[in-house]
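Interim report, section 4.2 (structural modelling).
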Amino acid sequence: MIRTRLVAQRLAFLFLLGCVFFNYPLLSIFNQGGSLFGMPPLYAWLMGSWLVLIALLALVIEGMHD
Amino acid sequence: MLQVWVIVLASFLYLGVLFGIAWYADHRADHGRSLIANPVVYALSLGVYCTTWTFYGSVGRAAANGIGFLPIYLGPTLLFALAGFILYRMIRVAKANRITSIADFVASRYGKSQLLGGLVTVIAVVGVIPYIALQLKAVSNSFTILSSYPEIVMPASAGAVPLFQDSALYVAMILAAFTILFGTRHLDATERHEGMVAAIAVESIVKLVAFLAVGAFVVWGLHGGVADVFARAAEVPEVARRLTRADTSAAYGSWGTLIFLSLFASLLLPRQFQIAVVENVDVKHLNRAVWMFPLYLFLINLFVLPVALAGLLHFPAGTVDADTFVLTLPMAHQQEGLALFVFIGGLSAATGMVIVETIALSTMVCNDLVMPLLLRMRWLGLAEKADLSGLLLEIRRWAIAIILGLGYLYFRVAGEAYALVSIGLISFAAVAQFAPVVIGGLFWKGGTRDGALAGLAIGFVLWAYTLLLPSFAKSGWLPEGFIAHGLFGIELLRPQHLFGLTGLDEITHCLVWSLLANLGAYIGVSLVRVPNAREARQASLFIGGTDLSGHLAWSGSAGVADLLPLAGRFLGRERAEDAFMRHARSRGLNSVEELPGDARLVNFAENLLAGAIGSASARAMVSSVVSEEPLGLDEVMNILDEASQVRAYSRELEQKSLELTRATAELRQANERLRELDRMKDDFISTVTHELRTPLTSIRAFSEMLHEDPKTDLEQRSKFLGIIVSETVRLSRLINQILDLAKLESGRAEWTVNAVDVDEVIHEAADSLTALFAEKRVTLDLSGLDKGLTVMADRDRLMQVMVNLLSNALKFVPPDSGMVRVGADGSAQEVRVSVTDNGPGIHAADHEVIFDKFRQGSGGTDVLTDKPQGTGLGLPISRQIIEYFNGRLWVESVPGAGACFLFTLPRQAGDNGKKF
Amino acid sequence: MAHRILIVDDEPNIVISLEYLLKKEGFEVKVATDGDSALLQAAEFRPDLVLLDVMMPKKSGFEVCESLRADASLADLKIIMLTAKGRDTEITKGLALGANAYITKPFSTKDLVAQIKLLLT
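Predicted structure of the assembly:
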């Protein structure tokens, strides 16, 4: 599947990016009251960054044939 | 109205549809038009990860602590980002080795160890049972709640319900029957279930749509959108608490732990392994799943928090179990249809999980636990049975029933004490114990069977002690004091604060201890010894690198006659024959009978069997046919070493034999030369003897005659004595010459090299022979000598040559008319001397012979008409001398026209060291 | 009647000694110094015994012996071979070719005379 080393490396980078997105200390920045786009900041951040990460995964994978 | 029969009918209808889909997919697969050979189906089927835990439990979790449900889905997202490194390899390895389960995977990786396969199976079964209990609890609860519609009544504690009125029991039984129908209709060599996968993919859609429907209803039906839900939640302090998390390191720690835990669980849970690895049709499908599966997870979690908040806002605290909000919110708003759909969605989540999980577990139990044990019991005579495929299916069916039974038992025993998610996490922690041996096995070649066994065993024990047993204790099946005061009241052994470790939640606590010990034991024990041959071979198969595969897999061989019936016993005769036929075709053969009984065939048969009964059992079965002792690494290395040594040795040998051939040829030559020399020496000695005896004969004869007859007259006497004297002189000369020649030939002669005046030497030699010439009245002509010719030579030796040549000439010229002429001239390089006579001359054939020792007058040669005087050593000695000074001595002669002996000497002696 | 002996040898001094010795013993002696003249003499002189040297130019003693034995008219002729090469092979060869005795040089005159007398009685 992931034949090119570059794609595998990009994915590994996204893995690390996800680790950063989904963990302390980034989480603590959003772990507060208030609202972001009508949502609690932590929820908004997690769902938002998660979606971004999925989009990036899709971009890397589906773009690998180009 | 949602009467019980409606719910039951809907449920069975749904299950029937699923079964129909499965049947159709199987049918399509049998005709080679796979329904599931599609990346989207693959990604959807991975959604089996989302069970009732997700469907009901996440909302409950969110209601309890807000966003805390999410790490369970972030972990798998991260895993799929690493798919290229982990899943891809696992799929490739599993396909190549016909891996049928995670137990098979581990067993195969560490040298096809039955013990290891069995241990993994036990851990998986024990570990996953709470998870199955969770499904039973969720389905039975949702059924109970839905069936009491329009009332919203929380189900009574399971323990309080009589066994046969417990809906969970019937749920378990129905699920068992359904799973048995699904998964064990036939036995496949690849252990793949196309129909099941198709059904699971459909279920994933059903539960997703159901959940999204509830979410949409809650967010937009009951509220004015997501922002409205959050805004209203923020207004209620009791609910607003869920919008943020405790900002402590422990909270972040357990958050991270859950991400990490779910990452492994989504890989190592038997059903995840089954779907992601075993059921994978094409490894390329993984590409799409890398983003599609996380997207699925994202979507199914999209409304979790809003629904949880809405539930908290709607129901007074403590009245409704938050785990049921998904169902009770529609019910509370009289949405019968939606409620039923939600129930079906929950049923989807549960059946999907239970079907795949129990099929995976039953395969493991059958292949890695029961069959190895049964095959070991020789008195059962299983190894000799003609067809075992029926038995295999029977074992799996029983395994499914028993696993669900155990799940129900756990539900009855401990189900009440925990929320859905907490039960699930116990299972997550159990399968996380596989992480070191599986991940390590994919990247580290040094792992051994012993290390894997040690790591798994200690990890499992610690998991059971810190997580499973407390779950029993909390349910009252073990004394409470066990948790509070530790085993035997030892504080350090408190299961949730082991060795005094505090400040962690129970899951993190369990993982810290069990995984640390697991990893430590796995690595530590593995390092005790180097992997043996089988482990090394499997490691190379799993990791790559030095390819030891194939060649060393089986050192023995077995024929089709043994292997086909063996495979037939487990797969059924027809399937086995088909497979063998395909194998034969792939090797360009027309029939099964033509297959050679080589290692390739044995490996093929083993792989084929591995699909049905697991790699470890397959190995055991095949080895019962192939009489071959397993190779130790040492032996393999020895063989390799030996081979290379033999190669080196044979190269050496080749060289040696080449040398030997050369040496032999040389020796033969030398030997021939020696024999020739020996013969020559023999001849020489014989000749010398003759030459010595001849004068001796005369001497003795005359001496005896004189001695015996003293009265011999004086004249006679004087004549005889004269003969004796001359013969004695001859004898002495002969002996001197022989000694001289020996000295020359052996190189022991002494040479005094000076500038020698050739003219002077010739004159001196001539002078010494003047008397003899005069006596025979032979003319010696020295007028042809150039003056002032010098050469570097030994004067005495040169003189010897001249005397020899002159006396030789004198010997053969006729008396009175004889004439010997000596000439000498020189060029810049050399001096040439000739001695010409007017004797009888020499035949061309004898021009060289005369330079041989004693050949001057030997019998059989027609050189000379008369017996010549002399020893026959003069010419050989002369030639030796001339050649010593790098000169040349030869004769030119025509019979009847005299002979001319010539020699040349270089002016500079050159390399005087040269001997001959 | 005195027995006739033919001496065949190419060494003049040996011939002299043998001639003197045998004449003194009362034999009628003739001399040949090579193989051809030996055969000639044998036919003319008709000796009772030939003292035959092996190593001679032109024709070796063996050849002469063979030729003598090939002549049926010389059937009674005794042949003693003389040789300075004392090798066993030559003794065997000589005897095989029909020599009656084989004497190695240098020989004892007494033994030679005894051998001759033995053969001629």
